[in-house]
Design a protein that fits this description.
The complex is a heterodimer.
Chain A lengths: L34 E12 L2 E13 L4 E6 L5 H8 L7 E6 L4 E3 L11 H11 L4 H14 L15 H14 L4 E5 L7 H18 L2 E6 L2 H7 L2 E5 L6 E6 L11 H19 L5
Parallel strand pairs in A: 3-7, 3-8, 5-6, 6-7
Antiparallel strand pairs in A: 1-2, 1-4, 8-9
Helix pairs in contact in A: 2-3, 2-4, 3-4, 6-7
Chain B lengths: L18 H12 L8 H28 L11 H14 L1 H33 L1 H15 L7 H8 L3 H25 L3 H9 L4 H38 L9 H10 L3 H33 L8
The chains are: A alpha/beta, B mainly alpha.
Chain lengths: ~280, ~300
């Protein structure tokens, strides 16, 4: 397993430049990990024989850590999320999480027959929150995603960005320490997505959840994550890891974000090109 | 190369100040429009065209009558049928017949829901039930309900129970199939959400599948009502007996026995009105409420 490194002497950034740190070995963390994926492989048996979706993936996410999973099509990210949420079982290896992880999708996947508040209330109910506290918790969660006073709105009365924020509030309502996000902002326009990045960062800092954020968007991964993990395609393997170390306010336009994104994109392109039929 | 754990601050130290304001601005700008036509225009566009169609039918009827293409004993004038209707309504006969038939129809329909909905749910939720009984139930849907009448008489003789049997055999399959189809159309994403939220089998059914299937189920209910009403009329028309009370079918039979064409036509009109009336009073508002709540009926501009 190799990770291309930018020759740092070639780059002239200001002092806050990203440190590109290859993590070739699993980091030894002190204390229990929030998510432990240990040598997980998944093989599907289809009509044309066996297809390996995931090949020997190991990943550990510490409590409170924000990890972005990056990969092209066929990197098995849906399979991996299904394994973490226990919708499916690995062919080999083990997956462990603390508690039941919450999951946010690309579509808001809110139930249209319920109001925004009722959607969150359903998550609370099955997270074991007593009915008496439910209303107060719903208001608190809506405040957290800056949607105070919209509890009685129907899903169709909300904009795309508002729906994703309600979906985030619902996911947080599960009171889970682990939040999985499956390209949650991919369907939003650039400005809304930019605002959502800020909001997610703020919410993450306030709640202290561990987040695994899956995306195709390299800049988004660098903008959000503390760590970016690059997966190969068919089968999905971890081919690179970068620790993002950018000090100060981080925006999608930040030069250091761009620089690290360029570095990761290079690696991603190599990986995709290797699949071309010669 | 720096050590791995030397970086502590890895996220924004300060939030961009304008994020809240930009977010609030986007919320206002992206608020979905909810423009609705004024009530008189909505009413006008939904009520005027059917009335026009009825006028056209009446005019054609009158013309055909005036051309004397058929003798009056076969085709009375609209005016004669209107007079007959008034007589029936004033004499109370029409009300009695409507009440007898309608109450039977609605009771039968309600029983069909009570029986059909659990069957539909079970078939949708248990693959082995679907594989075994699914095709049988779909097949039953295509059975003409009149065909059940002789069997129903054999079982229950001439009694209200016999009528209900015919109504149930007509309506239960379409209600059950409607619910099964409704559940089948539920986006798999909703079930995934249910799983992620930690809903068990029953909670998944109660909080996700049934509400999500409601629009499809409503279509099944509508069809179920149509089948109930048709089966009921078939049973009432075929079996004439004083034991069965005086329903619309019996009213029609009276017209046939007396060769009273206006009575026959009046009976047909009453049957039509009751069938359409239930649709308009029961199903339209229900459908409106369900679709409005989900934002499925408001026009996007």
């Amino acid at each position: 397993m190799t990770t291309t490194l930018v020759d740092e002497s070639d780059l002239v950034y200001h002092e806050d430049d990203p440190r590109v740190v290859p993590l070739l070995k699993e980091v030894e963390h002190s204390g229990a990990a929030a998510v432990t994926i240990d040598s997980v492989s998944k093989v599907f048996t289809g009509r044309h024989g066996k297809v390996a979706a995931l090949d020997n993936i190991s990943l550990s996410v510490t409590p409170g850590e924000f990890v972005c999973l990056l990969g092209a099509s066929g990197c098995g990210k849906s399979t991996l999320l299904n394994l973490i949420t226990r919708l499916d079982v690995p062919t080999s290896g083990t997956v462990g999480t603390i508690g039941r992880p919450a999951l946010m999708f690309q579509e808001s996947a809110l139930f249209p027959w319920l109001t925004a508040g009722q959607n969150i209330g359903l998550a609370l109910k099955y997270a074991g929150v007593p009915k008496k506290q439910s209303a107060a918790e719903i208001d608190g969660l809506l405040d957290l995603v800056r949607l105070s006073g919209t509890a009685d709105r129907r899903v169709h009365e909300l904009s795309g960005g508002q729906r994703q924020r309600v979906a985030l509030a619902r996911a947080l309502g599960q009171n889970s320490q682990v939040l999985l996000m499956d390209e949650p902002f991919a369907a939003l326009d650039a400005i809304t997505r930019d605002v959502m990045h800020d909001e997610l960062t703020r919410v993450w800092k306030e709640t202290g959840n561990s987040i695994i954020f899956v995306t195709h968007n390299v800049r988004e991964a660098v903008r959000l994550g503390q760590r970016v993990v690059l997966l190969s395609s068919r089968p999905g393997r971890v081919v690179g890891e970068w620790k993002v170390n950018i000090k100060g306010p981080r925006t999608i336009e930040h030069p250091a974000v761009g620089a690290l994104a360029a570095e990761i994109t290079l690696r991603l392109r190599e990986e995709i090109a290797s699949h071309a039929r010669s | 190369m720096p050590a791995l754990d030397d970086s502590v601050i890895t996220q924004d130290e300060v939030e961009r100040e304008d994020t809240a304001a930009v977010g609030a601005g986007l919320d206002v700008l992206e608020e979905p429009d909810r423009i609705r036509d004024p009530w008189w225009r909505r009413l006008g566009s939904s009520i005027v065209p059917p009335i026009l169609a009825m006028v056209v039918v009446l005019v054609i009827w009158e013309i055909v009558y005036l051309l004397e293409l058929k003798p009056e004993v076969m085709l009375p004038s609209p005016a004669a049928v209107w007079d007959e209707l008034l007589v029936l309504l004033h004499g109370g006969q029409a009300w009695e017949a409507i009440w007898t038939s309608l109450s039977r129809g609605l009771i039968g329909f309600a029983m069909a829901i009570v029986i059909g909905a659990p069957i539909g749910l079970a078939i949708a939720r248990f693959p082995w039930l679907r594989a075994s009984f699914g095709p049988l139930l779909s097949g039953l849907q295509s059975m003409p309900s009149v065909a059940w009448v002789p069997l129903a008489i054999l079982w229950f003789q001439i009694s209200p129970a016999m009528i209900y049997m015919v109504v149930l055999l007509g309506a239960v399959p379409s209600i059950a199939n409607g619910l099964t189809a409704g559940i089948d159309q539920v986006p798999p994403l909703y079930s995934r959400v249910g799983h992620v939220l930690g809903l068990n089998w029953w909670a998944q059914t109660r909080h996700v599948l049934l509400p999500a299937a409601l629009p499809g189920f409503l279509a099944g209910l509508r069809q179920g009502w149509a089948f109930s009403w048709r089966s009921l009329m078939a049973a009432e028309l075929i079996v004439t007996s004083s034991k069965l009370g005086f329903g619309l079918g019996q009213l029609m039979n009276q017209g046939r026995d007396l060769s009273d064409a206006p009575l026959l036509y009046a009976g047909l009109i009453l049957i039509f009105i009751v069938g359409v009336g239930v649709e308009l009073i029961m199903f339209r508002p229900l459908e409106r409420a369900i679709l409005d709540a989900r934002g499925l009926s408001t026009k996007k501009r």
